[in-house]
Structure formats: structure tokens, C-alpha cells
Amino acid sequence: MKPVLIAKNLIKSYTKGSRALDNVSLELNQGRVLVVMGPSGSGKSTLIRTFNGLENFDKGELNVLGIKIDSTHDEQKIQRIRKRVGMVFQQFNLFPHLSILENITLAPIHVQKRRKIDAEEYGMYLLNQMGIDSHARKYPSQLSGGEQQRVAIARALALKPELLLFDEPTSALDPERINEVLDAMRRLAEQGMTMVVVTHEIGFAKEVSDQVLFMDSGKVIETSTPDIFFSNAKHERSRKFLNQLDKY
Amino acid sequence: MNKHRNIFLQYFIFIVFISLFGILINNLAINLIRTGIGINFSWLLKPASFALAEYPLPYSASDTYAWALFIGWLNSLKVIFISLILSTFIGTLIGFARTSTHSLIGLIAAGYITIIRQTPLLLQLMFWYFVGFLGLKDNILIHIENIFKVSNQGIELYGLSFSSEFSALLFGLSIFTSAYIAEVIRGGILSVSRGQWEAFRSLGLSEIKGLISIIIPQALPAIIPGLTSQYLNLAKNSTLAIAVGYSDIYSINDTIINQTGRAIECFIILLTSFLFFNLIISNSMEIVNKIIVSSKKYN
Ligand SMILES: Nc1ncnc2c1ncn2[C@@H]1O[C@H](COP(=O)(O)OP(=O)(O)OP(=O)(O)O)[C@@H](O)[C@H]1O
Ligand SMILES: [Mg+2]
Question: Global pTM?
Fold first, then answer.
């Protein structure tokens, strides 16, 4: 098993005196799915965003697909990482002025310098996989939230990434739209995609993930398999958090 | 209820406005009768008998006042048009620099904007004229053979030459306006959500490519109105040409008033000219706006 992602003692503060990341270490092997959970403000987004250089860190070391970065935030290395790592956001962040297909082909055409027809052909294939190929010529605002998020996943897949990052991909969706997105993610996991998913969807975590990482106040409280985490969490704080989640 | 009050307020403002205008017209009529000159434009066809320092079309002192005014109008148009392009270019660069995450670049841009905006334009024009151009030591600042030359004679670019008066005005106006344009551009860029930046960055697009294909298209609708008002200001500010002795429409009007005493007529001419400049600017910008809005196929 080849590690795709190794984080060593990551430390980051936005403001002096409080740490958004407090000595975070983790390792993720190829083809595995890591779910990150934790209360609001615990540093989940900060952590996942360091993996593709959207967020800098103050101390520690990161190895993404063999590319090592540290607090110097080497732009060229980060650029190389971004070409091989896809990201899906809570708010979809589709480009509203571009059609669905243009959203997807932008990076293949301009980053990978692929021919437009090839990019479009592969784009249509991805949209088909996501069950939304009939919307290819529409604009993001014409689609439902669940459809937009599936477009966002297709866009992230267009560069054929070796690692996919999801930051609360279903939190902005209507309850009846959540499953269509989770199903798409489940299929990706089955196809062997390596993924880091920040989510509060317990069902998804139980069925799909290989590891659950629980954070609080910037610290990793525990990393367990979902079986253990959801039935017999090692730490008091994890159990408290799960109790709270159940109430909703 | 609210609607009625609104209508009442509008009528009230309208009546106040008309009354004020009436008083002004009345004053004007009384003055005209008292001085016994009346309004008359026939002097326009008499020889101007003054020289102009620069004229884009042939001009001599024996030409008519009308022709002199037209030359002045062209001179104004020339400096407004070139300043408009230059200030947009500089303003865009500074505006981007101002939003840069690179702290030193951001700081320099902020300093530029602050200094330029807090100094009177007249002072800046004087600076460019007396210190910038006339004050050049050894007469030459930059000299690239046959291509570009900056000296106390003005600017020479590929055989085109610009007087130091024109150059000082061009620099002054462009740099002054660019600071305001930079703020307009910055506002437009900030109106685009952070998520758009993160989305294009996470796809491996470069900052430049992302700006051009993602950020700017979405920022433009917020930028255009601000840009239009800066262009209109630029046109009006160009009348400060008189301070550096550039023969724009305003300074030629000024000369003619001194020679002929035809102040009312000259004011009318000046007003019409600026109405015309402003119509050109606002209509062109309206067209640009329409193109952008119609190309905006989303929401
Ligand atoms: N840009 C920022 N500037 C300053 N502080 C920030 C910034 N982003 C996050 N923080 C702070 O860092 C801490 C971790 O935030 P983060 O967004 O990573 O939490 P999270 O676990 O993703 O929370 P949520 O579940 O609400 O999304 C919080 O205390 C937050 O207030
Ligand atoms: Mg978050």
C-alpha cells in the first residue's frame, strides 16, 4: 500500500494564541476513504484545505502524492499538487458565467492543454456518469443544488485526479437531494478513488469510509475504523459529539 | 400613502428647480440688457488672430474663432481619449496589485492610491509640468533611438511627438484617474466570492488565467458603472489644461472671452462641448455594458 497523503505535525494559527491546527498528523493509503468529523470550528476545513495548498500552515510537513511541501508554501509544488488533486466545496463554487460543460472542460483545456473536442468528450462521459448529461449546455443557476454538486464532482474529476477532497459536500443541500450526491461519491469509492471527506453523514461514514478522524479545537482526538468509532469510540469527547449528532 | 408623499416630493423638487432656473435666466436677461451686448454668434466667423501652441489640423492666427474652438475641441478630445486608455491600464494594474495576497505589492498599491487621491489634481499637474518635464536635467530622461524619448521637449514615440504641456497633462490626468479606477477595479474584484478563487485555484489554473477567465467576467458588471463615472470626471478634469498652458477647449474659450467679451456665448459653447464629450463617454460605456449584460447568459 502506497501512502497518497502524509501529514506530519501540522500547526497553523490564524490569530495569535489560538491554533486552527494543533499538531495534526495522519496518513492515507491509496484507494482508501478518510472521513473527517468534528464540531464547528474544530479545524476540519483548514486541514483539508492545506492538502491542496488553499491554506498555508506554520509548521510541519505534508507529502501529497510524493510531493513534499512545508511552511514555505512553494507555489510551483502546490501547482503540481493541484493538477493531481480534485476538490469539491460545500457551496459548489461552479463558475456561474460558464455552461456546465465549459465548467468541466476549463481545466483540461487550459491546464492539461488537451484539445477541446477531447476535453468535451471526456466531460460528457463524466456528466453521464453523474447522471446529468442532459444539462450540459445549461448554466449552473438553472440546476438544483444536488445537480450542481454533481457537476462540481465531475469538474473535480476532469483532471483525472489521484486524490479527491470533499469539504461538507452535502451540507448546503435540501435533505431530499443529499443522497444523489452521496451515491455518486459512493460509486467513486467503489471504483477505488482515494478520498478525504469532511462530513456529518454517519450513514456514509459507516458504509464507505475506512477511517474516521475526529477533531476538536484543531487537535486530532482519535482516528478509528468506522466500526469502532460509531459503536465504541475511544474518547469521551468523540462520544459526546456523536450523542449531539444523534439528536438532529 | 408613501407613494403619494413621493409624488408630492418630486413635484416640490421640480418647482424649486424651475424657480431657481427662472431666477438665473432673469438675471442673465437683465445683465444682457444692461450691458447692451445681447447674444450673438456672428463673431465666430471673424479671424481669431491668436496663435496656438499645438494643432492637430492646420491652424494659423488668420483662421476664424470657430476653427480655433474646433482645434481646441480636438485637443481636448485627444488628451481625454489617451488619458482614458492610459489611466484604465495603470488603474487596472494597481487595482489587481491592491487585492494581491502578496503583502508588499498590496502595500505599495495602497500607498500609491492614498498619495494620489489625497493630493489636489492641480498640484499634481504642476508637478508633472515643472518638475517632471521642464525640470529634466540634461534635457533628456529616457532615450531609445527612434522609438521612445522623454525630454523637456515632451515625449517622442515612433516619430509621434507630444509637447511637454500635453505630456504633463496626460501624465497628471492619467495617474490621478488611475488611483480612482484602481479602487473601482478592487471593488469589482472583491464583489466576486472567495469561493470562485478557491475553485479555479484548486483546478490548477494560474492566477492570471483565473483572473481573466473567472474573476474579471464576473467583476465587470460591478466595475462598469464606477468606471463610467471616473471617465466623466476625467473629461471634466481635463479643463485644468489651462494650468499647464495646453490649448484645450477651455483655455481657448478663456482666451476668446478675454478678447471678445463674449462670455455667455463661450459658456454655451463650452457647455455644449462637454455635454457632447460626456454623451460620447456615457453612450459608449452603455454599449459596453449592454454587450456584457447580453453575454451574461446566467441568472
Ligand atoms: N480565514 C480565517 N481567518 C481567521 N480565522 C479563521 C479563518 N478560517 C477559519 N478560522 C478559524 O479557525 C478555526 C477552524 O476553522 P475551520 O473553518 O477550519 O473549522 P471547521 O471545522 O471547518 O468548521 P465548520 O464545521 O463550521 O465548517 C475556527 O476557530 C475559525 O474561526
Ligand atoms: Mg468547514
Answer: 0.82
